[in-house]
Amino acid sequence: MSHSNELSAARLADRAAIHDAMLRWIRAVDRREWSLVKEAFHPDAHDNHGIYQGDLKGLVAWLSERHETIPHSSHVVSNMLIEFAGDDVAVVETYCVAYQRYGSGGANTRRDITGGADTGDAQFDMMINGRYVDRFERREGVWKIAHRTVIFDNSMMFPVPAGGPKLNPDWPIGTRDRSDPIWKLRAAAGLS
Predict the structure, then answer these.
(1) Minimal CB count within 10 Å: which of 94, 132, 174, 181?
(2) What is the number of other CB atoms lying within 10 angstroms of the CB of residue 16?
(3) H or E stretch including 76?
(4) How many angstroms separate the CA atoms of 23 and 76, rounded?
(5) Cα separation values, 22 from 27, 85, 96, Å
(6) What is the Cα–Cα distance from 98 to 78, expressed in whole angstroms?
(7) Helix, strand, coil fractions of the chain, as percent rounded to 5
C-alpha cells in the first residue's frame, strides 16, 4: 500500500507537522537560536551538510561557530515534496535558497563555503541554491528529522561595495538574536 498520496485528515496533519518542523529549523538557524535547532531533529539524528557530517550536538556546535561572522542570514524554503514510506516515516525533499552576508573574519568559514576562493577579508553576499533531503520519523507522536543530507545545486558570490545601499535605520531591521522584532511579538502574544 502506498502512503504517499493519502489525503486523509490524519495525513494532512502529518504534512503540516513536518512543514512546521522545517520552518522551526529555518527560524533557529537564521535567528542563531541554537537551542531551537534541537526542536527540528530527533536527539540521535545525523546531519550531512557536506562541510559538517555528524550528530546533532556536533551540528549545533558547528553552526554556532560558522555563523559567528555571518551578520545576516535568510533561508527561503519553497517546494516541499513529502512522501510517506509508512505510518511513521517520510522522505522529504525541500528546495531552499540561502542568502547570507559574510562579514570580516572567519577565514575557515569563508574558505569552506566558497570552495577555497580567496575572499580576503572583504564582505560578500552568498546565495546558495540547494535541497534538504530528510528522513522524518514520528516518535512518541512527534515528527522530527532523523537523517538529513543537504544537496548543493548552485552558489553565487557577490562583493559588497563600500558605500553601497544600506537599510534605513528607522525601519524594523532583522537581527540574529533575541532583539529581532519576532521575539517581541511572540512575547506580547504569550508565546515566549
Answers:
(1) 181
(2) 11
(3) strand 72-84
(4) 9
(5) 9, 18, 11
(6) 11
(7) 30, 40, 35
* Average pLDDT for runs of 10 along the chain of length 192: 71 97 96 94 97 97 94 96 96 98 86 84 92 98 98 93 87 92 93 84
For the residues of 33-66, what is the DSSP string, one character each? -HHHHTTTEEEEEEEE-SS-EEEHHHHHHHHHHH
How far lies 179's CA from each of 25, 118, 164, 185, 189, in Å?
19, 33, 25, 11, 16
CA distance 26 to 75: 6
DSSP state letter for 147: E
C-alpha cell at 132: 534538504
From CA 52, how far away is CA 63, in angstroms rounded? 9
Using CA atoms, how far apart are residues 83 and 3, in angstroms rounded to an integer? Answer: 7
